[in-house]
Amino acid sequence: xxxxxxxxxxxxxxxxxxxxxxxxxxxxxxxxxxxxxxxxxxxxxxxxxxxxxxxxxxxxxxxxxxxxxxxxxxxxxxxxxxxxxxxxxxxxxxxxxxxxxxxxxxxxxxxxxxxxxxxxxxxxxxxxxxxxxxxxxxxxxxxxxxxxxxxxxxxxxxxxxxxxxxxxxxxxxxxxxxxxxxxxxxxxxxxxxxxxxxxxxxxxxxxxxxxxxxxxxxxxxxxxxxxxxxxxxxxxxxxxxxxxxxxxxxxxxxxxxxxxxxxxxxxxxxxxxxxxxxxxxxxxxxxxxxxxxxxxxxxxxxxxxxxxxxxxxxxxxxxxxxxxxxxxxxxxxxxxxxxxxxxxxxxxxxxxxxxxxxxxxxxxxxxxxxxxxxxxxxxx
Length: 380
Hints:
Layout: H1 4-39, H2 46-60, H3 65-87, H4 92-100, E1 109-115, H5 121-129, E2 132-138, H6 141-149, E3 155-162, E4 166-167, H7 169-175, E5 181-189, E6 193-196, E7 207-210, H8 212-217, H9 219-223, E8 229-232, H10 236-246, E9 251-255, H11 257-263, E10 266-270, E11 279-286, E12 297-303, H12 310-320, E13 324-332, E14 340-347, H13 353-364, E15 370-379
Parallel strand pairs: 1-2, 1-3, 5-15, 7-8, 7-9
Antiparallel strand pairs: 3-4, 3-11, 5-11, 6-9, 6-10, 12-14, 12-15, 13-14
């Protein structure tokens, strides 16, 4: 048996040869790119890729076939990106990012579209993001998107994720329909309490109303109350406001403690969330791309071809430049058979040239069916 040092020395020699061959291949790819450009030929050549995969997998044999397929498929992606870099000046998206990057601080006052009403968690998020906001309330998430898209409000606030109940699917589905950019994000601790009208007791309650996500976050508490029904509402604060107006003593609402003071309700139970640490993530959106000096996160949305390895190919590109994917959300594409649109959130700086190069590559890749840059922003 060989000594481990001798084995590693042999591996080092092979790695050096691979590195030299890799560099040589990319140099030759430059010549290929120029030739394709002169002939007006596309960068992607699926037929040739299939021929190469067939040849190399036959060469390595069945034992190493899967590894060879992964290795060369990754190599194809690298070489195609190299060709695009050679044939293109700075990508349009990169120019837009540079143009939208402002030396100024994020504004402390603005007109902001917000779902719900006074006392809603979204309203509380607005006041944490803006010091002096003017808030316009809307009865659903889509109206917030529309207010921003139609320039009624420069900014809008929306919940996208809860640590206990998961993603807000309705917001992710609406992202596809509307033109917007993310300019800020906030993770806010949510403390649910059970509110009722004055004089009502927990034993009197037959119905509990709140937003579906709040109901889901307190499902254990609700289940512990025999015979009590859950009634979905458009918003936690809206449910509280409606309860106060009704005067009912057989209904309670799950909302924030703020709503008790606002609407003259009493807290009849607290600590009702399933999770002790219950956080909701909110995004602040604008119509135009705005990037500020403290930006530390990116979001992009894309549709990928429905074939094995398509998603892994994208994820490996982020790993290759040591970028952390903090969230990957998939939503079905309406009218398409088991095809999905993916939203990627990742931690990075707009000043990082490797990140800008990757975004340029993704935005120009013809194999990505739809690519949308959602924004670069600060999250706290």
